[in-house]
Design brief:
The chain is of the alpha/beta class. A hairpin with a 2-residue loop joins strand 4 and strand 5. The N and C termini lie far apart (about 90 Å). The relative contact order is 0.14.
Length: about 160
């Protein structure tokens, strides 16, 4: 009977160990550097406050869909790595569940744009690098036009 318990215990450990593919879910370049800013309970408020627009991927390690867009999100992060218009970020909801709940994240991955520290728009659409880049570029262009129009209104009123 003891051998059977030991066998079962080893079997469970083997299954758990093999279920992890050993790959991180945070978007990192091949050099290991983050191309998407990892958010934590310690830095997320400041990052949202200090960036006009932040596009966040909320994910979990156990979600197959989160794993599926890992490389795609890495590509998006690399594309906007030097952008002053938008910051690409991500938060592991397995580690920071209360924060994810605060933003009403109930499924993974959830993709949300924040403006001036506040939830602004949830992305719902195709999930390819090209689709994300097109969406972000259009989003930024619309915002710039809106900002210019508001500046012009203020100048005309003066």
């Amino acid at each position: 009977m003891t051998c059977l318990k030991l066998f079962f215990y080893l079997l469970v450990i083997t299954i758990i160990a093999s279920s992890s593919d050993g790959k991180p879910n945070a978007a990192q370049s091949s050099s290991g550097e983050y191309v998407s800013t990892p958010l934590t309970n310690k830095n997320y408020k400041e990052i949202l406050k200090n960036n006009k627009y932040v596009f966040i991927k909320f994910y979990t390690d156990w979600c197959a869909f989160s794993k599926k867009i890992l490389k795609i999100w890495e590509n998006v992060g690399e594309h906007y790595e030097d952008s002053e218009d938008i910051l690409i970020a991500e938060m592991d909801c397995g580690k920071f569940k209360p924060i994810c709940q605060k933003f009403n994240v109930r499924e993974y991955p959830t993709l949300i744009i924040f403006k001036d520290g506040k939830r602004f728009e949830r992305y719902i659409g195709p999930r390819t690098t090209k689709d994300f880049v097109n969406y972000i570029d259009k989003f930024i262009a619309k915002r710039k036009i809106k900002d210019l129009n508001e500046k012009n209104k203020i100048q005309q009123q003066q």
